[in-house]
Amino acid sequence: MSTSIETESGPDAGAESSAPDAVVQTSGADMLRAIDALYNLEMKANIAALRHQQRHLRRHRSLTEWGTYWPLALGILVSFFTPQLREFVEAYRPWGLWVSFPMVALSIRPEIYMGSRMAVLLPTAMMYLQFPMEGLLARVALRGNVTVYGVALQVLFFHGLCIVDLWLLNGGVLQLLHQLGH
Protein backbone atom coordinates (compact mmCIF):
# COMPACT_ATOMS: atom_id res chain seq x y z
CA MET A 1 0.00 0.00 0.00
CA SER A 2 2.84 2.38 0.76
CA THR A 3 4.36 1.68 -2.66
CA SER A 4 1.22 2.83 -4.43
CA ILE A 5 1.25 6.09 -2.54
CA GLU A 6 4.98 6.67 -3.30
CA THR A 7 4.44 5.85 -6.95
CA GLU A 8 1.66 8.39 -7.18
CA SER A 9 3.70 11.16 -5.60
CA GLY A 10 6.97 10.41 -7.52
CA PRO A 11 8.40 12.38 -10.46
CA ASP A 12 6.87 10.02 -13.04
CA ALA A 13 3.35 10.47 -11.70
CA GLY A 14 2.05 12.14 -14.83
CA ALA A 15 3.45 9.53 -17.26
CA GLU A 16 2.19 6.41 -15.51
CA SER A 17 -1.11 7.74 -14.23
CA SER A 18 -3.31 4.80 -15.26
CA ALA A 19 -1.45 1.97 -13.52
CA PRO A 20 -0.88 3.53 -10.09
CA ASP A 21 -4.43 4.94 -9.95
CA ALA A 22 -5.84 1.47 -10.48
CA VAL A 23 -3.69 0.15 -7.68
CA VAL A 24 -4.80 2.98 -5.38
CA GLN A 25 -8.49 2.48 -6.25
CA THR A 26 -8.31 -1.26 -5.74
CA SER A 27 -6.44 -0.77 -2.52
CA GLY A 28 -8.97 1.84 -1.31
CA ALA A 29 -11.92 -0.40 -2.23
CA ASP A 30 -10.29 -3.27 -0.36
CA MET A 31 -9.78 -1.02 2.63
CA LEU A 32 -13.44 0.06 2.53
CA ARG A 33 -14.55 -3.59 2.28
CA ALA A 34 -12.30 -4.49 5.18
CA ILE A 35 -13.64 -1.62 7.27
CA ASP A 36 -17.20 -2.58 6.33
CA ALA A 37 -16.54 -6.23 7.25
CA LEU A 38 -15.01 -5.15 10.56
CA TYR A 39 -17.98 -2.88 11.23
CA ASN A 40 -20.40 -5.73 10.45
CA LEU A 41 -18.50 -8.08 12.78
CA GLU A 42 -18.54 -5.49 15.56
CA MET A 43 -22.26 -4.85 15.06
CA LYS A 44 -23.03 -8.57 15.11
CA ALA A 45 -20.97 -8.96 18.29
CA ASN A 46 -22.73 -5.98 19.88
CA ILE A 47 -26.15 -7.31 18.88
CA ALA A 48 -25.27 -10.75 20.26
CA ALA A 49 -24.07 -9.19 23.52
CA LEU A 50 -27.24 -7.07 23.73
CA ARG A 51 -29.46 -10.12 23.13
CA HIS A 52 -27.54 -12.06 25.76
CA GLN A 53 -28.00 -9.20 28.24
CA GLN A 54 -31.72 -8.90 27.42
CA ARG A 55 -32.18 -12.67 27.79
CA HIS A 56 -30.40 -12.52 31.16
CA LEU A 57 -32.60 -9.60 32.29
CA ARG A 58 -35.79 -11.36 31.16
CA ARG A 59 -34.75 -14.53 32.99
CA HIS A 60 -33.98 -12.50 36.12
CA ARG A 61 -37.32 -10.67 35.91
CA SER A 62 -39.12 -13.98 35.37
CA LEU A 63 -37.46 -15.57 38.39
CA THR A 64 -38.18 -12.48 40.45
CA GLU A 65 -41.83 -12.57 39.36
CA TRP A 66 -42.15 -16.26 40.19
CA GLY A 67 -40.38 -15.59 43.47
CA THR A 68 -43.27 -13.37 44.56
CA TYR A 69 -45.55 -16.42 44.49
CA TRP A 70 -43.87 -17.92 47.54
CA PRO A 71 -47.01 -17.38 49.69
CA LEU A 72 -48.92 -19.72 47.38
CA ALA A 73 -46.12 -22.30 47.55
CA LEU A 74 -46.05 -22.00 51.34
CA GLY A 75 -49.85 -22.41 51.43
CA ILE A 76 -49.56 -25.59 49.37
CA LEU A 77 -46.87 -26.87 51.73
CA VAL A 78 -48.99 -26.11 54.81
CA SER A 79 -51.98 -27.85 53.21
CA PHE A 80 -50.01 -31.12 53.33
CA PHE A 81 -50.11 -30.85 57.14
CA THR A 82 -53.82 -30.03 57.27
CA PRO A 83 -54.96 -33.43 58.65
CA GLN A 84 -52.48 -33.21 61.54
CA LEU A 85 -53.54 -29.63 62.29
CA ARG A 86 -57.20 -30.64 62.22
CA GLU A 87 -56.57 -33.47 64.70
CA PHE A 88 -54.81 -31.02 67.00
CA VAL A 89 -57.60 -28.40 66.97
CA GLU A 90 -60.37 -31.00 67.27
CA ALA A 91 -60.01 -30.89 71.06
CA TYR A 92 -60.76 -27.15 71.06
CA ARG A 93 -63.94 -27.37 69.05
CA PRO A 94 -65.65 -25.10 67.85
CA TRP A 95 -63.21 -22.24 68.46
CA GLY A 96 -60.16 -24.22 67.41
CA LEU A 97 -61.80 -25.04 64.09
CA TRP A 98 -62.95 -21.45 63.64
CA VAL A 99 -59.51 -20.00 64.24
CA SER A 100 -57.54 -22.59 62.26
CA PHE A 101 -59.98 -23.32 59.45
CA PRO A 102 -62.46 -20.45 59.25
CA MET A 103 -63.24 -21.09 55.57
CA VAL A 104 -64.08 -24.72 56.36
CA ALA A 105 -66.34 -23.57 59.21
CA LEU A 106 -68.06 -21.16 56.82
CA SER A 107 -68.54 -23.85 54.18
CA ILE A 108 -70.46 -26.11 56.60
CA ARG A 109 -72.89 -23.39 57.67
CA PRO A 110 -76.57 -24.16 56.98
CA GLU A 111 -77.02 -20.65 55.54
CA ILE A 112 -74.97 -21.72 52.52
CA TYR A 113 -77.40 -23.81 50.56
CA MET A 114 -75.93 -26.43 48.25
CA GLY A 115 -76.75 -29.92 47.12
CA SER A 116 -76.09 -32.89 49.38
CA ARG A 117 -73.07 -34.05 47.37
CA MET A 118 -71.52 -30.58 47.43
CA ALA A 119 -72.23 -30.28 51.15
CA VAL A 120 -70.06 -33.35 51.69
CA LEU A 121 -67.24 -32.39 49.30
CA LEU A 122 -66.92 -28.64 49.94
CA PRO A 123 -65.69 -28.74 53.58
CA THR A 124 -62.99 -31.29 52.72
CA ALA A 125 -61.94 -29.33 49.64
CA MET A 126 -61.88 -26.08 51.62
CA MET A 127 -59.72 -27.68 54.29
CA TYR A 128 -56.99 -28.34 51.70
CA LEU A 129 -57.58 -25.23 49.58
CA GLN A 130 -57.80 -22.66 52.37
CA PHE A 131 -54.09 -22.05 52.87
CA PRO A 132 -53.13 -21.96 49.16
CA MET A 133 -56.04 -19.59 48.53
CA GLU A 134 -54.96 -17.33 51.35
CA GLY A 135 -51.39 -17.35 49.99
CA LEU A 136 -52.60 -16.45 46.51
CA LEU A 137 -54.92 -13.75 47.84
CA ALA A 138 -52.09 -12.31 49.94
CA ARG A 139 -49.81 -12.24 46.89
CA VAL A 140 -52.49 -10.51 44.79
CA ALA A 141 -53.37 -8.04 47.54
CA LEU A 142 -49.76 -7.06 48.16
CA ARG A 143 -48.98 -6.59 44.43
CA GLY A 144 -45.28 -7.19 44.29
CA ASN A 145 -44.48 -5.93 47.80
CA VAL A 146 -44.58 -9.48 49.11
CA THR A 147 -42.80 -9.61 52.44
CA VAL A 148 -43.13 -12.13 55.25
CA TYR A 149 -44.62 -9.49 57.52
CA GLY A 150 -47.09 -8.32 54.86
CA VAL A 151 -48.23 -11.84 54.03
CA ALA A 152 -48.65 -12.70 57.72
CA LEU A 153 -50.79 -9.60 58.25
CA GLN A 154 -52.83 -10.34 55.15
CA VAL A 155 -53.50 -13.95 56.19
CA LEU A 156 -54.42 -12.83 59.71
CA PHE A 157 -56.74 -10.25 58.15
CA PHE A 158 -58.47 -12.94 56.05
CA HIS A 159 -58.75 -15.21 59.07
CA GLY A 160 -60.09 -12.33 61.13
CA LEU A 161 -62.75 -11.52 58.56
CA CYS A 162 -63.87 -15.13 58.44
CA ILE A 163 -63.95 -15.37 62.24
CA VAL A 164 -66.02 -12.18 62.50
CA ASP A 165 -68.35 -13.59 59.85
CA LEU A 166 -68.73 -16.82 61.82
CA TRP A 167 -69.33 -14.86 65.01
CA LEU A 168 -72.05 -12.83 63.28
CA LEU A 169 -73.65 -15.95 61.77
CA ASN A 170 -73.74 -17.64 65.17
CA GLY A 171 -75.66 -14.73 66.65
CA GLY A 172 -72.73 -13.01 68.32
CA VAL A 173 -74.30 -9.58 68.01
CA LEU A 174 -77.62 -10.80 69.44
CA GLN A 175 -75.86 -12.46 72.38
CA LEU A 176 -73.83 -9.32 72.98
CA LEU A 177 -76.93 -7.12 72.86
CA HIS A 178 -78.79 -9.54 75.14
CA GLN A 179 -75.95 -9.47 77.68
CA LEU A 180 -75.77 -5.69 77.54
CA GLY A 181 -79.54 -5.52 78.09
CA HIS A 182 -79.40 -7.48 81.34
A few lines on this structure:
The protein is mostly helical and 182 residues long. 81% of the residues lie in helices and 0% in strands. The chain starts with a helix and ends with a helix.
Strand content: under 5%
Return the domain count: 2
Q: Which spans of ≥5 residues are poorly predicted at pLDDT below 50?
A: 1-11, 13-17
Q: Structural class of the helix and strand makeup? A: mainly alpha
Mean pLDDT: 80
Radius of gyration, in angstroms, nearest whole number = 38 Å
What topology does this entry show?
Layout: H1 2-9, H2 18-67, H3 70-79, H4 82-89, H5 95-100, H6 102-107, H7 116-142, H8 148-169, H9 172-181
Describe what this molecule looks like in 3D:
Helices cover 81% and strands 0% of the residues. Residues 1-11 and 13-17 have low confidence and may be disordered. The protein has 2 domains: 2-67, no CATH class; 70-181, no CATH class. By secondary structure, the protein is mainly α. The longest helix is centred in the first third of the chain and has 50 residues, at 18-67. Helix 1 (2-9) packs antiparallel against helix 2 and helix 3 packs antiparallel against helix 7 (116-142).
